[in-house]
Write a structure and sequence with these properties.
It catalyses: (2R)-3-phosphoglycerate + NAD(+) = 3-phosphooxypyruvate + NADH + H(+); (R)-2-hydroxyglutarate + NAD(+) = 2-oxoglutarate + NADH + H(+). The protein is α/β, with parallel strands linked by helices. The chain is built from 15 helices and 16 strands. A hairpin with a 2-residue loop joins strand 14 and strand 15. It is elongated. It binds nicotinamide-adenine-dinucleotide and 3-phosphoglyceric acid (3PG). The site of nicotinamide-adenine-dinucleotide (NAD) has 32 residues, from helix 6 and helix 8.
């Protein structure tokens, strides 16, 4: 038997301390009779994950049977991600679409891990029912669908995939710019209806035209490089001063960009400041016969104002990949019940409408599946928060099989004075081998590896930390 499991009592044996704490995976493990004894349950061979889970001498920190971890994956999370989670032994339920709020609330009560994409709204009204939830994986870039602050304040860590689909979005935008410039969407629709309509009026090369990129982050900067390769001139507007790719140039204001660009493309996150960022005033600033593309979030463009600008001939074309309200899954209708302007939008000339597929390529989805699932496994098994979007990033070197009586304490707490002193008083009876603590806003995350801990002491230690007023969540891994 690996030495680390030596002191752990039989799962259903007589070593129960009699402690009256119900067992929850999320808060670590109250009663000692629930602690895992099986070497196979405690020392799994790792999945594809990186970091500490790869080294064979690395101790797998699982004070629970992995099959007790319940994972709910919504919105057709890629098989790569599902596989990694299943290989850990977790119970994984994977659904193809998002869920209406009432069904989501029912399901979320029970799970320790949830994986979503851009549709599923995890606001406080839903999260307050998620009593066992320790971590959320956004298998996408955007995290605007999650109440990040509420999650952090309730000890729920959130991960995403910051750039694995950026290239896919940039390539879709390049394709769409040419489709708009040549009115290819309309020509194709006509021919599908049996109408031959060979025209050149209002159709242009993109070479020499100016592309205005709003938001020069991962997507915007990739797009910049691709557009220059096609001979376009690139200008961009961003709230941050950024290094220009190639010969592109940053402009000082959104209006300046709108007045100069032939094509305007939006790549900003959903924020209060970006809500209706392009509305009537901005369409007025744009050049006559210019084009607008939006693959960021539906709330960034005032779509009724876009419809007016298109009908008035100000816009020669537009492309939308995102909408204020989107269907929950495939096969559902895209009509006025969803957004009151939908019929008007569908009837416009040279307007390309796509169902939020900017990041939907095999390459992107497969990479996102691996990246986010790895983050989830490292968080559940090791407490590592590297890459978290709502918690400080904390990571400790992994414990090894040579460190038998060690345990790892994860203590998420309110960021108030005096907590460290009190925590260290509790840990102080043991040797603290390593410790890291960091804070982000009102929440702090402490991780410590301590040695020479007898099994009988684990519960007391856990309970002492739980009893501190500053506690948000305690996890003890060993
Ligand atoms: N359609 C899709 O499938 C798809 C795929 C990926 C991302 N997205 C959306 O695109 C957005 C951008 O993605 P990204 O990876 O490039 O994000 P990013 O965070 O790398 O870049 C966003 C850029 O916008 C800038 N910005 C923020 N507020 C701004 C403002 N008010 N005005 C101007 N610039 C501002 C930021 O400084 C940053 O440089 C995401 O937040 C996501 O919502 C959509
Ligand atoms: O935020 C993102 O990465 C994109 O909007 C893609 O979202 P999706 O995974 O729901 O397609």
């Amino acid at each position: 038997m690996p030495s680390a499991a030596r002191d752990i009592p039989e799962r259903n044996g007589n070593n129960n301390t009699g402690a009256d704490i119900s067992r929850t995976v999320s808060n670590s493990f109250g009663t000692l009779d629930n602690l895992s004894t099986s070497p196979t349950a405690t020392f799994h061979s790792p999945a594809s994950s990186y970091g500490g889970l790869r080294n064979p001498s690395t101790k797998q920190l699982k004070p629970f049977h992995t099959e007790d971890i319940k994972v709910l994956l919504l919105e057709n999370v890629n098989k790569t991600g599902q596989e990694i989670l299943r290989k850990q032994g977790y119970q994984v339920e994977a659904l193809k679409s998002s869920l209406p709020e009432d069904q989501l609330i029912e399901k979320i009560r029970d799970v320790h891990v949830i994986g979503i994409r851009s549709k599923t709204q995890l606001k406080a009204s839903v999260l307050k029912h998620a009593k066992n939830l320790i971590v959320i994986g956004c298998f996408c870039i955007g995290t605007n669908q999650v109440d990040l602050k509420y999650a952090a304040e309730n000890g729920i860590c959130v991960f995403n995939s910051p750039f694995s689909n950026s290239r896919s979005v940039a390539e879709q935008m390049i394709g769409t710019i040419i489709v708009l410039a040549r009115q290819i969407g309309d020509r194709s629709n006509e021919l599908h209806r049996g109408e031959w309509n060979k025209v050149s009026a209002g159709c242009w090369e993109v070479r020499g035209k100016t592309l205005g990129i709003v938001g020069y982050g991962h997507v915007g900067s990739q797009l910049s490089v691709l557009a220059e390769a096609m001979g376009m001139k690139v200008i961009y507007y961003d709230v941050v001063n950024l290094m220009s790719m190639g010969t592109s140039a940053q402009v000082h204001s959104l209006d300046e960009l709108l007045q100069q660009a032939d094509f305007v493309t939006l790549h900003v996150p959903e924020l209060p400041e970006t809500m209706d960022m392009i509305s009537t005033h901005q369409f007025e600033q744009m050049k006559q016969g210019s084009y607008l593309l939006n693959a960021s979030r539906g709330s960034v463009v005032d779509i009724p104002a876009l419809i007016e600008a298109s009908k008035a001939g100000k816009l020669a074309g537009a492309a939308l990949d995102v909408y204020p309200n989107e269907p929950g899954g495939n096969g559902q209708h895209f009509n006025n019940d969803l957004n009151s302007f939908t019929e008007d939008l569908r009837n416009l000339k040279n307007v390309v409408l796509t169902p939020h597929i900017g990041g939907s390529t095999e390459e992107a989805q497969s990479a996102i599946g691996v990246e986010v699932a790895d983050s989830l496994v490292n968080y559940v098994n090791l407490g590592t928060t590297s890459g978290a979007v709502n918690m400080p990033e904390v990571k400790l070197r992994s414990l090894t099989l040579d460190e038998p009586n060690h345990l790892r304490v994860v203590y998420i707490h309110k960021n108030v004075p005096g907590v460290l002193r009190r925590v260290n008083e509790i840990l102080g009876d043991h040797n603290v081998d390593k410790q890291m603590t960091d804070s982000r806003g009102d929440v702090a995350y402490l991780m410590a590896d301590i040695s020479n801990v007898n099994t009988s002491e684990i519960k007391t230690l856990y309970q002492s930390l739980e009893d501190l007023g500053s506690r948000i969540r305690t996890r003890v891994l060993y």
